[in-house]
Amino acid sequence: MSVYAQMLGVALAVVSSVCWGVGGVIFKLGLKNVNEYSGNLIRSIFASLYLLPFVIYYGVEKLTLLLLLILFVSAFFSFFLGDLLYFNALKTSPVSYVLPLAATYPIFVAVMDNIIYGAKITPNIALASLATFLAIVVIPKGGGEFTLKSFTAVFASLSWAVAIVTLDYLTRYLSPVNLAFLRLVMNSAMLFMVTRSISFERDTIIYMGIIGGMLSVVGILSFITAVKIMGSHLVTPISATSPVTGAIIGKIFLREKITLRHVIAMILVFLSVLLVSNPG
Questions:
Q1: How much is the CA Rg of the chain, to the nearest whole Å?
Q2: Whole-angstrom Cα distance, residue 133 to residue 155?
Q3: What angle is formed at CA 151 by the lines to CA 145 and CA 156, rounded to 5 degrees?
């Protein structure tokens, strides 16, 4: 892997982190008056529609039965089961608690990648994951009650890890656009089967659909492309810094004071990125 490719992969991982950090707040607003099934479906439909013109223009690669099976597994554990668990946690717990718990997936990915692909867990990758975890812990927690339901986010993290590991295989045969589109369409189909009614409330359309769908597309494409370039074991420690990037961006736009804890978290995030840039 060239230095340029590695820098591009790291930059895309940071972009995905920003999208998911901001997305946590946006999805919280969009789920205010609807259940997670309806919200997830609207998000997936809008994201699929955003990607459709690119799929039509570039076409779809040839799909084998094995690729379709792995695509289904990837879609199920990422956007269906993983995101439903995540959205459920967002509805019942403060974002400041949910995001850190949901961002534990690099640990699961590192172990799974080592078992399935034989990817080595180097000291730098282990330290990057630790720096990410510490950065998340350092971030000041907002108001709200922490409950046992908050731990739903951990199960979401585990589910995402299973899906992320499949990307190392799928990116060998499918472009990021097609991979993102096909998984979102499969998720929409699964949600149609289990969703009794769809809410078309204004806030749901705006936050889950228009804004949330766009954030999902940019975040997913950036993440998949980064995995294609670097591998999931290198990308996840950076993308998991989303609670930090989301908190910092929120502070900037709201013109709120950035505390010493925020500064320490940013330094730890920078350290994580630096370690992944030189995986050792």
A1: 18
A2: 17
A3: 130
Contact 226, 13 (CB under 8 A): yes
Whole-angstrom distance, CA of residue 213 vs CA of residue 139: 27
* Sheet strands (E) in the chain: none
Position 253 scores a pLDDT of: 65
Q: Please tell me the distance from the alpha carbon of residue 136 to that of residue 241, in angstroms, as a whole number.
A: 7
Given this model, what pLDDT does residue 91 score? 79
User: Quick check: 157 and 102 in contact, CB under 8 A?
Assistant: yes
C-alpha of 27 from chain center: 13
189/144 Cα distance (integer angstroms): 34
First to last CA, the chain: 13
The residue behind tokens 């949910």 is 98
Q: Is pLDDT of 275 > 70?
A: yes
Report DSSP letters for 24-57, one per residue: HHHHHHHTTTS-HHHHHHHHHHHHHHHHHHHHHH
* CA separation for the pair 138, 269 (Å, rounded): 11
Range of lowest pLDDT (119-123, 167-171, 236-240, 247-251):
247-251
- What per-residue confidence (pLDDT) applies to 135? 76
d(CA 67, CA 174): 9
Q: What is the mean pLDDT of the chain?
A: 85
Of these ranges, 93-107, 109-123, 140-154, the one predicted with the greatest mean pLDDT is: 109-123
Rounded Cα distance between 185 and 166, Å, is 17
Give the global pTM: 0.83
* 118 vs 14: CA distance, rounded Å: 25
